[in-house]
Amino acid sequence: MVKGLSEPVEIIKDQWGISHIFAQNEKDLFFAQGFNVARDRLFQLEIWRRQATGTMAEIQGSKALKRDIGSRLLKARVDMKQEMNHYHPRGEEVIPSFVRGINAYIDITNKNPGLLPLEFPLLGLKPGHWTPEVVVSRHNGLFRNAGYEIAFAQSVNVLGAQKLKNLLNLHPGDPSLKPDEGIDLGLISDNILELYYASRARVRFGPEDIIDPSHKINQSPFPPIGLTTFPTGKVEKNAFYAYQKLSCPLFVPPSLATQLHHEMNLGSNNWVVR
């Protein structure tokens, strides 16, 4: 039994790869959900964690600096107990249980790095532990329309509130576009949302993010990836050398992609039913 559970839990994957979790109590249920999602999507979780904590520059250098500054600037600074209980009446128990499950699987990968997804050794990473703050971080919040709000404010400044209102289709409501007294819309610069957009930009990795292929595997904290047959038809010594021969280190042959398309369907392990 995985350390952290109070009673046995069963996770069954059906023919579509969807996980069905059977637990004896709520804490174990959400612990198992966290463990399961980490087992299935650990690299995705690591990127989410870094986006939420503003630590992408640790792995991408200066090109991610503005992203991190924006993420830290816009970080929700709230009472965590109150915040978690907004999500669920027992949120202060459910969310930490989910986090402990994620971290339990991460601890297992620390002891057995061979369980890590390919992206980790390619980028020279180890996954970091989650906290409840990461779970409730604002990746998509009520500020998502911030760009529109700024555009409206700048338009009011240039055209005036009434003229802009005449140009826009705002029915069935009749909102006032006049700014409050003391607000100078002329102070809103075109780049005021630079850090906001940087924090929400899609994370992209390029060849420069892959660790130096001359770096010897046995000097890495990760075990050798092993002999792998790639679409080149040759058995490569490791994925780093293979990366140099392929346009994408995660290349999937068309025949395999077609097969996977027929055998699998989109699903999610982000939901559990009690």
TrEMBL record:
GO terms for biological process: antibiotic biosynthetic process. Pfam families: Penicil_amidase (PF01804). GO terms for molecular function: hydrolase activity, acting on carbon-nitrogen (but not peptide) bonds, in linear amides. Gene3D superfamilies: Penicillin Amidohydrolase, domain 1. SUPFAM superfamilies: N-terminal nucleophile aminohydrolases (Ntn hydrolases) (SSF56235). InterPro entries: Ntn_hydrolases_N, Penicillin_amidase_dom1, S45. Belongs to the peptidase S45 family. PANTHER family: ACYL-HOMOSERINE LACTONE ACYLASE QUIP, PEPTIDASE S45 PENICILLIN AMIDASE. This is Penicillin acylase family protein.
